[in-house]
Amino acid sequence: MTEPAWVEHAVWWHVYPLGFVAAEAAALDRTTPAIHRLPNIALWLDYLVDLGASGLLLGPVFESSTHGYDTVDYFRIDRRLGDDDDFAALVEQAHERGVRVLLDGVFNHVGRDFPMFARALGDGPGSSADGWFRIFWPEAGDAEPDYEHFEGHRQLVTLNHESPDVVDFVVDVMTYWLDRGADGWRLDAAYAVAAGFWAQVLPRVRERHPEAYFVGEVIHGDYAVYVAEATLDSVTQYELWKAIWSSLNDRNLYELDWTLTRHNELLDHFAPLTFLGNHDVTRIASRLQDDRHLPHAVVLLMTLGGTPCIYSGDEQGFRGMKEDREGGDAAVRPAFPAEPDGLSPLGRPTLALHQELVGLRRRHPWLHRARSHVKHLANGQLVYSSQANDDAIIVALNLDEDAVTLPAAGGVSVLAGAGDVAGSGGQTTITLAAHGWAVLSAESK
Question: What CATH superfamily classification does 371-442 receive?
Fold first, then answer.
């Protein structure tokens, strides 16, 4: 395992910068001066700390044509966000608060306006620039050649990851921003890149920055094998994300139980990045069919092994549906108020819930590597322990309309939530209200 020791204590707050600061939808004209909006994000650092988080995961901040995932200059801050000085100040202010900064690296593809792609089209087949991409040149004629692109989006030109020049380029980009204070990288669409590419890149970057953290966006497949072959620290835990909202909606906690078994197996190899929402999916508050089960989802995020990540606004109960159409991400990438004081008071109960559970997580950092052990399972009830070595907590969830009394062997007292504990040792029970939940301390071993 290559993960830096500091990640054990990490709880990320994920921000999509271009949306957060209400930036223009398309790039500014190259003659337009930078608009200094990154300082607006710095104004939220104290809020991040009050939430209990310890890391800021930034979506794309580099010069791009539109949404940030069509990068055109990896060495320049997007002028819609600011400039190098704004970035340096944001990192400095974050580090002053003990907050780590993770950058979003879009290295599967580039925007069509990426200069090397323009050079490849101009210089033609067999040129040095041509080798950066997979271009299918016509035998004759002036028609633009076809080329590999990302998931049907011709504006996103896929890099040739077998090219040594591309390997060197990604190493240079990563080390440049780590030199400037970033603490690691989220690797966008890592699932679309052969693991061997990262295995060439990451060891070279770690030579310069051994404490950097690297997490890949991976949706399907064998996570553990990909992590090992790519030499990553972690990948995104989409399996757990899906199982949480699906099992809560269906009141079928057997689905979650199956996924927890798989999750334990992953924890034998690495600590996954766990989440309830991000910039690409429907908000958890909109996904759940019963608002009373939002706390249950947050409880699961904060008491299971892994590295938790909270998508900004989820801690306020923001709603938003992801739609499969052009511009369908807008609802889940909204603008935020200039400062936290501008938030609606309607979000305060959800914020308090997150603060309670993030605080619990931070006081029990061993949960990062904890395995879950199911003690009681029914369609609408679940009791499990999260345990690492001699440390343990017990979690009880009730999704039904009636109060229930559940076995909670070894439970001692309520750490979070609400419930009546009775008995002791192996005879301990916890009584939960309808749709209730509780986290219990456990007897020391």
Answer: Golgi alpha-mannosidase II (2.60.40.1180)
Alpha-helical segments (H) within 314-397: 348-363
Q: Per-residue pLDDT for 142 more than 90?
A: no
Q: 388: which 2 tokens?
A: 């690492």
Averaged pLDDT of the chain = 97
- Contact yes or no for 363/52 (Cβ under 8 A): no
Token pair for residue 430? 């916890």
The set of residues, in sequence order, having a beta carbon less than 8 Å from that of 366 and lying 6+ positions away, is 8, 388, 389, 391
Count Cβ atoms within 10 A of the Cβ of residue 327 and give its class: 0-12 exposed, 13-18 middle, 19 or more buried. exposed
Q: Which residues contact 264 (CB under 8 A, 6 or more apart)?
A: 305, 371, 372
Local structure of residue 27 (DSSP, 8 states): P
Comparing C-alpha atoms, which of 378, 364, 414 is closest to residue 394? Answer: 414
Question: pTM for this structure?
Answer: 0.97
Give Cβ neighbours of residue 172 (< 8 Å, ≥ 6 apart). none
Does the pLDDT value for residue 185 go beyond 90? yes
Superfamily of the domain at 5-369: Glycosidases (3.20.20.80)
How would residue 393 be classed by pLDDT, with cut points 50, 70 and 90?
A: very high
Q: Residue 17 and residue 333: Cα distance in Å, rounded?
A: 9
